[in-house]
Amino acid sequence: MNNKKAFIFDLDGVIVDTAKYHFLAWQKIAKALHINFTHEHNELLKGVSRVRSLDIILELGNVSASQEDKDKWLIQKNEDYLSYLVDMDESEILPGVFNILQFLKEQNQGIALGSASKNARPILEKTGILSYFDVIVDGNDVTNAKPDPEVFLKAAQLLQISPEDAFVFEDSVAGVQAANIGKMTSIGIGSKAILHEAHYIFEDFTSMDTHFIESLISK
């Protein structure tokens, strides 16, 4: 297998389950603003930038705010979120992810992170898998949020691999759409009912074997 392809991973909900920490941090902001923010509402924030996430929460509560207040809440949310990450370690890696990363590395494939998170690097460091990634493109590196494909296109470009030879692992509708718009192959991780636009869908990485990865490499 000499065909080098690009395998691009989203972070939250794909590699690690930090969605629970985002929820707690956003819920704290919402509670202070007397907005009822549920787990169902949290689904609306998947794959969405921090700025847009705050706007969605404010819309849920029909709350208007100045830019100064928004900036203050965004800082507060991030500080609360980071406080939950202090004790992160390799146990936070979702089942099956490490085996896939290891196999891709052994096959000399291009491995990238494509995430809206601005905390991607410290999370990868804390979980001990930073060295597996040849390229990291996160919220600090792009201006357009998913479903705009900028984050994935930039990752493929840095790997020097064409979009047609790129495979994106995503758990959000916006992320799947971004991969599809970017002319990449989308691999949904999660519910078929939600991620039905993906080219392939797996419940998680434990249900994905190396034969599937080999088939992508040999395409």
Automatic annotation (TrEMBL):
<feature type="binding site">
    <location>
        <begin position="10"/>
        <end position="12"/>
    </location>
    <ligand>
        <name>substrate</name>
    </ligand>
</feature>
<feature type="binding site">
    <location>
        <position position="170"/>
    </location>
    <ligand>
        <name>Mg(2+)</name>
    </ligand>
</feature>
<keyword id="KW-0479">Metal-binding</keyword>
<dbReference type="InterPro" id="IPR023198">
    <property type="entry name" value="PGP-like_dom2"/>
</dbReference>
<dbReference type="InterPro" id="IPR010976">
    <property type="entry name" value="B-phosphoglucomutase_hydrolase"/>
</dbReference>
<keyword id="KW-0119">Carbohydrate metabolism</keyword>
<feature type="site" description="Important for catalytic activity and assists the phosphoryl transfer reaction to Asp8 by balancing charge and orienting the reacting groups">
    <location>
        <position position="115"/>
    </location>
</feature>
<feature type="active site" description="Proton donor/acceptor">
    <location>
        <position position="12"/>
    </location>
</feature>
<feature type="binding site">
    <location>
        <position position="10"/>
    </location>
    <ligand>
        <name>Mg(2+)</name>
    </ligand>
</feature>
<keyword id="KW-0597">Phosphoprotein</keyword>
<feature type="binding site">
    <location>
        <position position="77"/>
    </location>
    <ligand>
        <name>substrate</name>
    </ligand>
</feature>
<dbReference type="InterPro" id="IPR036412">
    <property type="entry name" value="HAD-like_sf"/>
</dbReference>
<feature type="binding site">
    <location>
        <position position="171"/>
    </location>
    <ligand>
        <name>Mg(2+)</name>
    </ligand>
</feature>
<dbReference type="InterPro" id="IPR010972">
    <property type="entry name" value="Beta-PGM"/>
</dbReference>
<keyword id="KW-0413">Isomerase</keyword>
<keyword id="KW-0460">Magnesium</keyword>
<feature type="binding site">
    <location>
        <begin position="45"/>
        <end position="50"/>
    </location>
    <ligand>
        <name>substrate</name>
    </ligand>
</feature>
<feature type="binding site">
    <location>
        <position position="53"/>
    </location>
    <ligand>
        <name>substrate</name>
    </ligand>
</feature>
<feature type="binding site">
    <location>
        <begin position="115"/>
        <end position="119"/>
    </location>
    <ligand>
        <name>substrate</name>
    </ligand>
</feature>
<feature type="binding site">
    <location>
        <position position="12"/>
    </location>
    <ligand>
        <name>Mg(2+)</name>
    </ligand>
</feature>
<dbReference type="GO" id="GO:0005975">
    <property type="term" value="P:carbohydrate metabolic process"/>
</dbReference>
<dbReference type="InterPro" id="IPR023214">
    <property type="entry name" value="HAD_sf"/>
</dbReference>
<dbReference type="GO" id="GO:0008801">
    <property type="term" value="F:beta-phosphoglucomutase activity"/>
</dbReference>
<dbReference type="GO" id="GO:0000287">
    <property type="term" value="F:magnesium ion binding"/>
</dbReference>
<feature type="binding site">
    <location>
        <position position="26"/>
    </location>
    <ligand>
        <name>substrate</name>
    </ligand>
</feature>
<feature type="active site" description="Proton donor/acceptor">
    <location>
        <position position="10"/>
    </location>
</feature>
<dbReference type="Pfam" id="PF00702">
    <property type="entry name" value="Hydrolase"/>
</dbReference>
<comment type="similarity">
    <text>Belongs to the HAD-like hydrolase superfamily. CbbY/CbbZ/Gph/YieH family.</text>
</comment>
<feature type="site" description="Important for catalytic activity and assists the phosphoryl transfer reaction to Asp8 by balancing charge and orienting the reacting groups">
    <location>
        <position position="146"/>
    </location>
</feature>
<feature type="binding site">
    <location>
        <position position="146"/>
    </location>
    <ligand>
        <name>substrate</name>
    </ligand>
</feature>
<dbReference type="InterPro" id="IPR006439">
    <property type="entry name" value="HAD-SF_hydro_IA"/>
</dbReference>
<dbReference type="InterPro" id="IPR051600">
    <property type="entry name" value="Beta-PGM-like"/>
</dbReference>
<protein>
    <recommendedName>
        <fullName>Beta-phosphoglucomutase</fullName>
        <ecNumber>5.4.2.6</ecNumber>
    </recommendedName>
</protein>
